[in-house]
Amino acid sequence: MGFHGGNNLYKVQTDTNISRTAAGEISLNIMDTWKYYGITHRGHLVCNPTSEAKLDELVQLLPLKPGARVLDIACGKAEFLLRTVERHDCSGTGVDISPYEVDEAKRRTKNRNLGATVEIVLANGSEYEIEPHSFDLAMCIGATWIWNGYAGTIEALKKAVVPGGLIAIGEPYKMHEPSPEYAATEPDFVESLLSHAGNVETAIQFGLTPLYTSVSNHDDWDRYESLQWLAAEEYAREHPEDPDVPELLERTRISRDTYLRHGRDTLNWAIYLFRSPG
Ligand SMILES: C[S@@+](CC[C@H](N)C(=O)[O-])C[C@H]1O[C@@H](n2cnc3c(N)ncnc32)[C@H](O)[C@@H]1O
Question: What is the reported pTM?
Answer without folding.
Answer: 0.92
